[in-house]
Amino acid sequence: MRIYENKDQTREIQCGYCYGYGHNKRHCPTMKAQWEANPQVHDTYDHNSLVDIKVTMFPSHYQNYWGDSQAKRQFRAHWVYMKNRFAPKATTKTTKPRKKAKCGFCGSTAHNRRNCNKMKNFVYVLNETNKAYRSQFYDRFIEGMGIGAGALVSIRDWDGEQRVGILTDFPTDDIMFTNLTRSWSDYNTKAKCSFLVNGEKQSYNIGDSFFYHEDRDEQIEMGLWGNMYSNWGRVHNIISPAPTKPTKEWFIGKAPCYEWVVKKKDQHTLMGAFYHHIREFYPHDNLRAKLGAKVYDRYYTQ
User: Fold this and answer.
1) Biggest CA-to-CA distance, the chain
2) Do 154 and 43 share a domain, yes or no?
3) Do 62 and 137 fall within a single domain?
4) Is residue 26 part of a domain?
5) Which of 253, 273, 291 is the C-terminal boundary of a domain?
6) Is 91 part of a structural domain of the chain?
7) Strands of the sheet with 192-197, listed across from one edge
8) Residue 248 and residue 105: Cα distance in Å, rounded?
9) Does a structural domain hold residue 298?
10) How does strand 229-230 pair with strand 192-197?
11) Which residues of 171-189 are buried (b: 16+ CB within 10 A; e: fewer)?
């Protein structure tokens, strides 16, 4: 998933005033210095009286394109902000009572995300959904079709011609129900198979129009599995199955854990992305108890 791939990335802070790095405008030393150097505009703004506001306030890259006038426009744009930030307050503001903290996952004020049973139950639902998906994937494609490393397949090549290729790399660990989410979704995961066709390596994502199928009505009847088929799919059929295949128990046991999905997302955001997949693949009859009656009824009974 995109949110998983980017989970460890940190972005360097850039100031919205001077565009320097390492601080934001709340702690910008340039802004404060320029405010203090221009006491004549603390009460009423006067653009023509501004002093010591030059293009050198910006990093060198911007200085190649901007002049002192741009620096003064930046001051003008932030004048109200600076007045509220630096000018002495006429009266002491009454401190507003702090809002009671609430759980970032379910919204309850009785606990936080760390102690949220609904979040733990939701992780369980995702993991069970994924295990069931992998189980069906195994029966349908690995056992049923013989897909796997070493399989000979008929592929529609880049020029539209059908050629024989060999599947050289099958992404066992990447097979998960989120392969079937839309490709532009933050929750989409890729599972790319590699093929050798006429000595050239080609890769196709198994979750998005992987197999050729020309009957749109049949694709619709397949439900979510239909996302793997289209009339521009690359793989037409399996000519010869993979020479070896993993056991079903091993394949299901390799399912990843979905605990990281819920760290920064609330329940309704995730349900909006996954409720179709949960309904399709969740294997138990306790879904209403696990999700809670309110959430279950909202997504599955209306």
Assistant:
1) 84
2) no
3) no
4) yes
5) 253
6) no
7) 200-205, 192-197, 162-169, 152-156, 235-240, 211-212, 229-230
8) 34
9) no
10) unpaired
11) beebbbbbbbbeeeeebbb
Q: Is the pLDDT of residue 123 over 80?
A: yes
Report the alpha-carbon distance of residue 33 to residue 54 in Å, rounded.
12
* Mean pLDDT confidence for 170-189: 88
For residue 69, give its domain range.
Answer: 13-86
Instruction: For residue 42, give the amino acid letter.
Output: H
* Chain segment 52-80, per-residue pLDDT in tens: 999 999 999 888 888 999 999 999 999 99
Q: Structural domain tally of the chain?
A: 2
E-strand ranges in the chain read 152-156, 162-169, 192-197, 200-205, 211-212, 229-230, 235-240
CA-nearest of 153, 146, 152, 155 to 232 is 155
Taking residues 191-203, what's their average pLDDT?
A: 91
Tell whether 244 and 124 lie within a shared domain.
Answer: yes
Cα dist. 112→83, 107, 116, 119 in Å?
37, 9, 6, 10
Tokens of 7: 């989970």
* Tens-place pLDDT, residues 124-159: 999 999 999 999 999 999 999 999 999 999 998 777
Query: What's this model's pTM, rounded to 2 decimal places?
Result: 0.67
Strands 235-240 and 152-156: antiparallel
8 Å CB contact between 299 and 287: no
Distance CA 269, CA 20 (A): 35
Place of tokens 């209306």: 302
Residue 262 lies in a domain: no
Query: Where do the DSSP E strands lie in 132-179?
Result: 152-156, 162-169
pLDDT at 4: 54
Residue 6 is predicted with a pLDDT of: 59
Same domain as 67, residue 17: yes
Q: Is the pLDDT of residue 256 over 70?
A: yes
